[in-house]
Amino acid sequence: MAKRNQHDPTSGEENPQTQSAADSARNGITRRGFLKGAGLTAAGTALLDGVHAFSSETAGNRKGVTELGPGPVPVRLHVNGAEHVVQIEPRTTLAEALRIHLGMTGTKIICDRGVCSGCTVWLDKMPVNSCMTLAVDAVGHQVTTIEGIAGEGELHPLQAAFVRHDAMQCGFCTPGMVMSCAALLERNASPSEQDVRQAVSGNLCRCGTYPKVFAATLDVAGSTRNA
Amino acid sequence: MNRFVLADCTSVDAALSQLHDGAVVKAGGVDLLDRMKDGIEEPPKLVNIRNIAELRGIHETDHGLTIGPLATLAEISEHPAIRSQYQILSDACGHAATPHIRNMATVGGNLLQRIQCWYYRSADFQCLRKGKDFCFAFGGLNQYHAIMDYGSCPAVAPSSAAVALLGLNSSVELTSAKRGKRTVGIRELYVVPDANPTKFTVIEPDELLTAIVVPRPTPGTRSAYQKYGEKESFDWAIADAGVVLEMDGNVCRRAVITMGAASPVVRRSAQAEAALAGQPITEETARAAGRASVEGALPLSMNAYKVDLFPVAVYRTILLAAGQRDRDPSAAG
Ligand SMILES: Cc1cc2nc3c(=O)[nH]c(=O)nc-3n(C[C@H](O)[C@H](O)[C@H](O)COP(=O)(O)OP(=O)(O)OC[C@H]3O[C@@H](n4cnc5c(N)ncnc54)[C@H](O)[C@@H]3O)c2cc1C
Ligand code: SF4
Ligand code: FES
Ligand code: FES
Question: What's the structural domain count of chain A?
């Protein structure tokens, strides 16, 4: 990040490893669960269903202009196959809407500048950086997050391969890595190592897990390394 | 990031009607949101052009290409006709930034992105380009700054697409509600800091960039772009070169050599072009053109390495364009 100010990942959020230890230590209310609950109450997402939210149908009225904000407005988002109405300011990024308003904290905000791809989600299966995407720009698109790539209670084959290949250390970059590699597999079922390298060339891993990420992805693809 | 009104528009006319009283255009938002997050700009209104269908698409015409400003870098780099006939452009768009940014970044926004000088990008430094009278880079950290043509501000031209589009002699169409349309060449799109330090481009606040027009190269033209960076991905170029060769067998009838990260505004190197005109493309002529590309360079205290790097970038990209060398594995992207 020679030319750009990089936010320290450890300052924005706790280390996922200590996090999970803290979570399992308390029965009932967990720290993460508590924080998520507090965020949801403030956002009050459930109350808004049924109001006229900004959606692909309301966009582009007769004059071709829809003005939103600056205060919070209801916005209809499709995330992991479900419809949600969130009350957000236009300046809210998709990453913030997911994490703060919908409680989906799997998507990480690390640099918040488009530099690390830790916040990767899919818009209609295309990987993008949710930190540099306004939430209102996701209207009319299908958003997929790390929470949505596998079925309920299951792991996506790529997630299972990440576990098998020990493809994570601190885990901070991992949701973004998985989303980038899974998007590649959606486009190309049998990528070469070069394709995988290219797919994660925007994903920054400070722990250096890249070789295992390549191996895990190629394992799922059924290709051999260096193919 | 400040709060703002977002005017989501679905037509060019609607967007033009919103461009007054400090409203700014948002396309992909990658550069604009970055400036806003860093607190160097606080626009009261964003005019969202991202949903304007008429500004999308890459169209092949009788004369070449007309590219909608909302075409993304990824779309341009993957377009079959661009890959086969306008390689310099697919190279430049395919090696800018990261794969996910290329999915979001529009080519219009790429051309109009602001400089990356770290003093400019920090709200803590009020310099020449923000209307004050001081440049922090001359006496400060200037390893990524300009080596040529810099006058009072050595921040370098950031756009990879501009290096390619200048090489292809392209122009942009600018549209305003009051004054209609005008066409401006890529080089003329940019305002040199000495002429007006806070202007950046000739686009007026009420204007939209509505099309990019790329003339079809003459038959036998070969082209390429390469970018050198401190890292393989993620970052803007520290040196980059665009090469367009009009060939007659192995003799180069005419060459266009463009450079991005050497100067505040994307430039053509008349010296490098002259070194190739009428010559066969060989290791020697390519190296001579590379050396010629930095004639007159005046490096700053920390960037003399660029005077060595640009000739390598130019020489290797000439050989890549001529088909005499593979893409450089040490080039970025
Ligand atoms: C990590 C990273 C690495 C990068 N590396 C590179 C690189 O190597 N090479 C490179 O070239 N770029 C690089 N970039 C920059 C990136 O390509 C640009 O930020 C992006 O192309 C901007 O496009 P956008 O659509 O998001 O523009 P926006 O942010 O929406 O707009 C940019 C500017 O243009 C104006 N604007 C946009 N469209 C129009 C229009 N049609 N009419 C009038 N005004 C308009 C906006 O008002 C704004 O001022 C990098 C960015 C990141 C985050
Ligand atoms: S190089 Fe230009 S942008 Fe950077 S501090 Fe100097 S005047 Fe400002
Ligand atoms: S958080 Fe780093 S790219 Fe979004
Ligand atoms: S950043 Fe720690 S695992 Fe990638």
Answer: 2
Element (H, E) at A181: helix A174-187
Q: What is the CATH number of the domain that holds A190?
A: 1.10.150.120
Looking at the CA of B68, name the nearest ligand. 1
Alpha helix ranges (H) inside B179-324: 186-189, 270-276, 283-292, 305-321
B299 phi, psi to nearest 5 deg: -65, 160
CA distance B46 to chain A (A): 10
- Mutation site, A123, A128, A131, interface B, largest B CB count within 10 A: A128
Residue in B204, B174, B179, B201 with CA at minimum distance from that of residue B190:
B201
Q: What is the DSSP letter of B155?
A: P
pLDDT digits (tens, 9 = 90+) for A122-163: 999 999 999 999 999 999 999 999 999 998 889 999 999 999
pLDDT band at B332 (very low <50, low <70, confident <90, very high): confident
A19 is a domain residue:
no
CB B5 within 8 A of CB B46: yes
Q: Chain B, 15-34: which have a CB under 8 Å from a chain A CB?
A: 17-18, 28-30, 33-34
ipTM of the complex: 0.95
pLDDT tier for residue A197 given thresholds of 50, 70 and 90: very high
Tokens of A19: 């996090």
